[in-house]
Amino acid sequence: MLHPPPEDAQQLVLPDGFDALIRVLDRYVTDRRAGLPWRARSRGRALPAVLLAREPEGGPAASTAEPDPALTALVLAYRQRLLTTGRDPVQHLAGLVPHAVVDDALLARGGPREDDAGGPHVLLVEEVARQLRTSMPDRTGTLRLREFDTLLAVLRAPIPVGDDTEADRKALREMLVDRYARRFQPAPGAAQLGDAVGGPWAAAVRWVTSVPVGWLWRLWYGIRVDRQHPWLGARLNQPGRSFLDAALALRAAHQYSRTRDTARTQPPESAVMAARDEAVVRQVLLIALIHDLAKAARPPAWSRRRPRRGWSFVLLLPTVGGDGSACRKLLDTYAATAGDAGPSPLLVLGAATDDIPSYAAPPAPQAVPAQSGSRTHRAGRAVATLFSAAIAGRGAEAVCVLPLPRTPDDGTAAEWLAGHRVVRTRRAAAWDCWRPVAATVAAALLLAGGFAGYRAVLSLLPGERSPASCREVATGQVVGLTDGTDGCDLAHGLYAPELRKLERTLGEQNALVDTSRPYRTLVFFAPLSVGSESKRTVPTGFQMLRGALLAQKQVNARHLKSQVPVRLLVANAGEYFRYGSSGGLNTTNHTTVDVAQMILDRASTDHIAAVMGLTQSRPESQQAAIELGTKGLAVLGTGVTGQQMVEGESPVSYFQLSPPDARIASVMASFAQHSPRLRALAKPTSGHVAPAAVVVYDPSDKYFSNDLANRFDTAYKPAGPVYRVPYGEVDDRRTSNVAQTVCALVHRTNGFVLYAGRSGVMEDLFHYMQGDPGCRARQNRVAVLAESPAPDLTLHPERMQQEYDALTLFYNQFSLPDRQGPFAGLFHAAFHLSAENDAALGYDAVNVLSDIMDAIFTTDPAFTPSSLVTQLQDPGVSRYVGESGVITLNSDHNYPPDKEIHVREIPSHGKPLTDLTCGVLAKGAQRVTHWGSDGRFTCPTDDPS
Fold first, then answer.
1. Are the C-beta atoms of residues 16 and 294 closer than 8 Å to each other?
2. Tens digits of per-residue pLDDT, 719-765?
3. What is the mean pLDDT of residues 514-519?
4. Model pLDDT, residue 295
5. CB 740 within 8 A of CB 519
6. Among candidates 525, 484, 536, 755, which has minimal Cα distance to 638?
7. What is the mean pLDDT of residues 156-161?
8. Better-scored residue on pLDDT, 635 or 180
9. Are strands 634-638 and 654-656 parallel, antiparallel or unpaired?
């Protein structure tokens, strides 16, 4: 659109001090980040629109500013400062900065062009984009408006209106892919090369040089077409992130406004809806245009055009009149979208010729030093204050009114403008062409230096390189953290393939978490590997990890109104939890490796909220809980039963889902004394009411084995004799000798075995007991009652009959999921295993922590880990019905009181039986206080309430 140049600036009636205003505008037109320090110039800002008006008759303090049609000439005069006469290669009119002038005739012209454009509201924004394109300064490249052109193509797509949304999506997608694919054109030399080859190979050459590349180009865009421009759906209140769905909604709004606009008569409510949809379409197009301008204003650092594109894109609105004028509609749209469009390089200058919009606010008065060599005037100072505050990141209104004085210029402003007719923009320099060359050289040097550094570091490290959050230790284990995608493989030992499968699942599920939005990370922390020479492992932790992974998948699939997505990290503490902590209670770790510290190092970057697992009662695991608690991280233990873990030096941030040894020992003593199933295999000795107990324990294991043996001894001795046999994870005695002693005692006393040792070495002992004559000579099988059974035996109970038919295993279990229930079914579908062996503990741990985080997130989206500790203490968790039982945790209960406990048996047919159930059960949330066929025996409790 051409605008005739206004009369010469010397003949205009200029307001007093107008030259000071022009100086400020020129400064920010030529450098949109003027005044910012060099380090802060990369930050994107948005300048407020300036609307020129007149001061009221009584002066600045009399009332609000007033419109004046004469101000139009000032805006058009400023446009002349943005043009120059180019000389290369021929004389022509060229823009010094890209700019556009809006004409009110845009909304009144009509005709074929308006019909093709899709209405005056579309034509208005398109005309602005066209002028910005054509006014690009020489040697600064072409202005590419990809988002804007895509949305224009959506509005004008020749797709018939229908009710089949899926068909419309497909048609729109095909249209966009075809349009984008047309941008790829085969190299001009391809056809010439084919002609030169000639013969039957000509077509093949043309196909090879054009079709595969074009097909890949089309395929690549087709994959990402529905993922682009995610802001569009939010702007249109469309759920989800689908661009095609949002584009269809935009087309529907546009078609509705056009249909109602062409109707001769329409109800008032329809007119209101049509005007609203028209405004929405205009706002969306303007936001897309601003996004494209922001990208065009900052080419890549290596581009030769980057230094020259420091200017602002100028939008001039010479006649901001009533509600129906084009300039007013565009200013209304800019005011409505400025807060949502993000960084904007657009500088808007308008003149109020009719009613001043209500959203236009006067700039805040603030005294600033005048620029060197310029005359001070309140209009110039006001604009300088306004723009400097905006680019510095301080709040400003989207549109500000600038009252100009009614006093005419005394000739000074006109004199200055006559001598400074155009803005002074940066010219092309020789260094600009060296930018891509320098960037290429720097990238090559950086790549070479990085590779050399990598090789140097690799040569200093033993074995293969490990990621920063995991370390290989002397035993060959890899300890530390992984999210399943960082290349850190924690698997080692007999069960390494199982852990690798879980790491793959972990990586897949974490990849689905949108880390651009608020989320929190939980860490599953446990011994998950074994030493190079040992074949022992702790697959109990694997089963709980499976439960945690299933819970993470379900939690993130809920999509609740106020929910924190959960990422999961897996931390391996190494065999015996040796590398899980350092110093303090941990006297076995003599290295610098400290996995608890690794977790703390990543707490901030990974938004870690809590740690769960541990799975073993050891001084090393309690020291880890202390280290984590000192930094405010909550620890929720699963499978941890040692009394010391909840007493003594236990931190206030430590909680667990399992009952402690005091209650477990009482339940086991009650079962051994009264169970008919065990009595069938072991008989009371003379002078006692219960069979003799041969307690296999580790005297050096103070936190678990020795503590459990002592507590069982105290609870059971009044009823039957107790014989102790030492047996530990690290023992100088041969396992065959231990088995011989145990079998001899059982054979002589006709008693049973109370296995209080660690699960990892149970099968070593079973192997020798199975072949010992003392155990084989018995008429009945040897009954073994275990607090911590070998996990593989409970997951595959048929192995007892196949490999250890001289033994009958009774064992504790802290959860008994319903085989027909949803948890057991989903667990089996995910991992092809039963949910036995306390998988429910890991499942409940994630769900409990997730519910607490959601509750905090409702009032404090930026909550810290210490907030979670506070929430666990008060109000805590009250009677949460999980898959492992009913859970209550608070400052008075760091473990669930009266937790669900079962004693199960693997009989000869291999199908486990439940012989005892006590505590508050998950099924029906009922409290079981008695056990036995007729309920004769009282269940031991640890909470009388």
1. no
2. 999 999 999 888 778 999 999 999 999 999 999 999 999 998 999 99
3. 92
4. 86
5. no
6. 525
7. 77
8. 635
9. parallel
Residue with tokens 């929910």: 563
Beta bridge partners of 521: 567, 608
Distance (Å, whole) CA 147 – CA 96: 25
Tokens of 177: 């892919």
CA distance 261 to 119: 9
Over 60: is that where the pLDDT of 196 sits? no
- The phi-psi region of residue 354 (left if phi > 0; otherwise alpha if psi is between -120 and 50; otherwise beta) is beta
- 8-state DSSP, 471: E
| Separation between Cα atoms, residue 425 and residue 768, nearest integer Å | 91
CA distance 574 to 477: 7
Task: For 590, list phi and psi in degrees, rounded to 5.
Answer: -105, 20
Preceding peptide of 875 cis, ω within 30°: yes
Are the beta carbons of 736 and 783 closer than 8 angstroms? Answer: no
> Hey, CA dihedral for 382, 385, 390, 391, is it positive or negative?
positive
Residue 111 banded pLDDT, cuts 50, 70, 90: very low
What would the mean pLDDT of 460-469 be, rounded to a whole number?
50
Residue whose entry in the numeric block shows the structure tokens 């002078």: 687
Tokens 């193509």 identify what position? 153
Q: What sign results for the dihedral spanned by CA atoms 276, 278, 279, 280?
A: positive
Q: Is the pLDDT of residue 62 over 60?
A: no
What backbone phi and psi angles, to 5 degrees, belong to 824?
A: -60, -40
Q: Rounded to two decimals, what is the model's pTM?
A: 0.55
User: What's the CA gap between 473 and 493, in Å, rounded?
Assistant: 14
pLDDT in tens, 625-637: 999 999 999 999 9
What lies within 8 Å, CB to CB, of 23 at 6+ separation is 371, 374, 380
Q: Which of 462, 460, 484, 660 is nearest to 572 (CA)?
A: 484
Q: Cβ of 777: how many Cβ atoms within 10 Å? A: 10
End-to-end Cα, the chain, rounded Å: 85
Spatial CA neighbour of 769 closest among 747, 789, 794: 747
Going from the C-alpha of 832 to that of each of 543, 570, 913, the distances in angstroms are 12, 21, 21
How far is the C-alpha of 810 from the C-alpha of 677, rounded, in Å? 10
If you ran DSSP here, which 8-state letter would residue 85 be given? E
CA angle 507, 614, 799 (to 5 degrees): 80
- For CA atoms 636, 637, 643, 644, the dihedral sign is negative
Mean predicted confidence (pLDDT) in 832-839:
85
